[in-house]
Structures are given as structure tokens and as C-alpha cells.
């Protein structure tokens, strides 16, 4: 059961991060790359999905927001590599690893509540 919970938590965080990144990347393309303003519509939907996905975790909101930040950093580095075609540096990977470790400590620490 514990392994399933860990997998579900990580998958949900990853989906949340992708929704947030898409919701921010599309306006970036419009503002910085001269792409169509129509990109703002899927960006808004993606940001709404991001907010909704954050509500699906069964723990305190502040803890979720803190832990989510670590996963966001990891997914953003993957985005850099897979979407922007820029290979992360060793420092990028080390920093993302530390952030994801912080998320794991926050989310999976034993609680007596």
C-alpha cells in the first residue's frame, strides 16, 4: 500500500508540474517568441488544471505547496532538456536532486496526527 501511495503522489505532482509549466510556457511563447495570442486559451486551461490538481492531495495545503516545489524543479529541468533541447548541467541535476529529496522528506516523513 505504501508503495502505491508514493507512486500516486509522485505521479500527481508530476502531472501538476507539467500543467503549470505548460500554463506558463505558452504565454512565454506569445510574449517572447511572437507566437499567436491564441496560446493564452490553452494556457488558462492548463493553469486551471494545475490549481485543481493541487487540491487532490490528502494532506495540508501548506505541506503540499512546499513539497510540490521540489517536484516542480525536477520537472522543469526535464522540460529544459526535452522541450527546449538544452542539456542540463551537472549543477542543474544536482540542484533538482536536492529539491526532490526535500520533497520526499516533507511528503513521506512519519506523522503522528
Radius of gyration, in angstroms, nearest whole number: 15 Å
The helix tally amounts to 4
| Poorly predicted parts | none
Roughly what percent helix? over 70%
Identify the overall geometry.
flat
Order of helices and strands: HHHH
Averaged pLDDT:
90
Biggest sheet descriptor: none
Strand content: under 5%
- Structural class comes to mainly alpha
| Total domain modules | 1
Distance between the termini: 19 Å
The tally of strands reads 0
Features:
113 residues; mainly alpha; 0% strand
Question: Could you characterize what this model shows?
Answer:
This protein has one domain (2-108). 78% of the residues lie in helices and 0% in strands. It is built from 4 helices and no strands. The two termini are 19 Å apart. The model has no long low-confidence stretch (mean pLDDT 90).
In short:
Helix content is 78%, strand content 0%.
Topology overview:
Elements: H1 2-33, H2 40-54, H3 61-82, H4 90-108
